[in-house]
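During the reporting period the student researcher (J.K.) took over the structure-prediction task from the postdoctoral fellow and processed the backlog of single-chain submissions. One of the processed entries is reproduced below for the supervisory committee.
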Amino acid sequence: QRPRQDQGGQPNPTAMAKRQKTGKILALFDVDGTLTVPRKQADDVMHAFMADLRKKVTVGIVGGSDLVKIREQLGDQAEKDYEYLFSENGLMAFKHGALLKATSFREHLGEAKLQKLINFILIYVANLDIPVKRGTFVEFRNGMLNVSPIGRNCSQEERDEFERYDAGAGVREKMVKVLQAQFAEYELTFSVGGQISFDVFPTGWDKTYCLQFVESEFDEIHFFGDKTYKGGNDHEIFESPKTIGHTVTSPEDTRRQVTEAILNKL
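J.K. obtained the following structure tokens:
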């Protein structure tokens, strides 16, 4: 059984004894809903907390968003401020600000398949009957596609309204099921994250992808994320036997769980 923690649960004693070899700890964090309110900037309290945490353990960030969006939330020097920063689930991997590796979705899938996928998505969105549509329904990133039925150009108010609407209507969930059936042979994963979108990437390119860069360096890897349920973009890394997973509900809850699971035990 993996040494998983959920809402303050305790890891198993055998795993803890094993990890006490050198005390090398990595605290790995999701961004939206974990360090920040979704798509908002981290506040001064969180910045101060993370700065203090970095003095005690190694800290890493793993987000589904690209580097530009992570910088908007965590600061212009985010990839230098944190020992490790993994944007796009680790498909863009940085250590102390230096690029370790960049992995390309386009090269992996091929242009013909990529266009077929994008065309299908755009036609599907065009036929959707939802209260609001704006622009940028497909955002092409280095390692994935980000698909938004409402469009990423929506305002924060529209973003909040869509999240509430989607919770009842299941717009993203239904769209994902259609894409899974239509493109089964592409071996893609569709991962719901944030308020308005879902990510599309080759199976195995979820947030566990980033672990290859750190798993041999640490005895204990704690992961903190909010969307740890099946289908959420934190699920695979939360469930991984290589991590101690923590489900959090807000930035405040993140600070509480980090304090209980790591700081109080140093």
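The committee noted the following: The longest strand covers residues 188-193.
J.K. will present the remaining backlog at the next meeting.
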